[in-house]
Design brief:
Length: 141
């Protein structure tokens, strides 16, 4: 019985060794060259120039900004300009989180708690007057 168990364990070890060798051989394939001959399937082909290195895209900007990112950049500028219309206000950051926007500002005056709230509300009103598509949070430093 003991001899049978020893043979089973040895057989299992041999099978695992063979599988390990096959796996490592498959993973060791040269990854620097394509297995496919000819042009590769490209989702957005665009214009290419054929060189000694192969097909090279002519246009280097292959990841243009999405419409949402472009709109947020425009909105960021609009929000900054609207907030800075409040005298003595300097915008230090504008952060988007979906339909929420957090605007951090610095003011030239020392403010107590009530004044900070009033200043924040004035800035929020100015921003909502310029663009009313975000839930605005204003942080006064």
């Amino acid at each position: 019985m003991r001899e049978l168990n020893h043979k089973v364990v040895r057989s299992i070890g041999t099978v695992f060794t063979i599988l390990l060798v096959l796996l490592l051989t498959a993973c060791g394939q040269n990854q620097t060259e394509s297995l496919q001959e000819g042009p590769l399937n490209v989702n957005n082909p665009g214009q290419f120039e054929t060189t000694e290195e192969g097909n090279v895209p002519i246009e280097q900007n292959t990841t243009p900004l999405s419409t949402e990112q472009s709109n947020q950049n425009q909105d960021k500028q609009t929000i900054k300009e609207a907030a800075e219309e409040v005298p003595g206000t300097e915008v230090t950051s504008v952060t988007f989180d979906g339909k929420k926007v957090r605007v951090t500002v610095r003011v030239e005056e020392d403010l107590n708690s009530d004044e900070r709230i009033a200043w924040s509300n004035n800035i929020k009103s100015a921003i909502k007057g310029a663009t009313n598509q975000y839930n605005v949070q204003v942080i006064v430093n």
